[in-house]
Specification:
The chain is an all-alpha fold. The protein has 8 helices and no strands. It has a single domain, classed as Orthogonal Bundle (Arp2/3 complex 21 kDa subunit ARPC3), CATH 1.10.1760.20.
Length: about 180
């Protein structure tokens, strides 16, 4: 994919990553972002579609710009989300492209997605553990990471259905 096209798609996915959580917050469902994880989808997809570097950059920029424009995530949660989402973008691109899991069609996408999700949550848990243990920051530590996984189960299910399906459709259309 040529650089201009990658930049365009990267900017589009960045905008979706900033705006999609707002749509979920407008539903009035309490804690909709933590339940449905709408910011994760464009970041994970960035890694799959644009590669690990663009996925990593979108993972950093999406929560930073969302916080700047909409005050979500909160400054206290920001460093943890940046680490988690940057990991998602990087790992989804690495597993799918670098390990060549794309050759396994839909299952390669699912395997890459599960691996990236596990890796991103592990980085998130590690960051919380370090913040709580070493720096004495009251963030909940590992228990907060486990709570986030349980709370986010609907979003994880959406990701497991939506992202591989979208990858399959784009591959069939010759766009990927």
């Amino acid at each position: 994919m040529i650089r201009t096209r990658k930049l365009t798609y990267g900017g589009l996915l960045l905008a979706i990553g900033i705006l999609l959580p707002q749509v979920f917050h407008f539903t009035g469902i309490p804690n909709a972002g933590a339940i449905f994880l709408p910011m994760h989808i464009p970041v994970l997809f960035s890694g799959f579609f644009l590669g690990p570097v663009f996925g990593f950059l979108n993972g950093i920029l999406t929560p930073l710009l969302s916080s700047l424009f909409f005050s979500m995530p909160s400054p206290a949660r920001m460093p943890f989300m940046v680490l988690e989402l940057a990991s998602y973008g990087l790992l989804s691109g690495l597993f799918f492209r670098r390990l060549r899991l794309e050759r396994f069609r839909v299952w390669g996408g699912v395997l890459s997605l599960l691996s990236a999700m596990a890796g991103g949550r592990a980085i998130y848990a590690l960051a919380l553990w370090i913040a709580a243990g070493l720096f004495h920051i009251p963030c909940g530590g590992i228990a907060a990471a486990l709570t986030a996984v349980v709370t986010g189960l609907p979003g994880i299910l959406i990701q497991l259905i939506f992202i591989p399906l979208l990858l399959y459709v784009l591959r069939k259309a010759g766009k990927f």
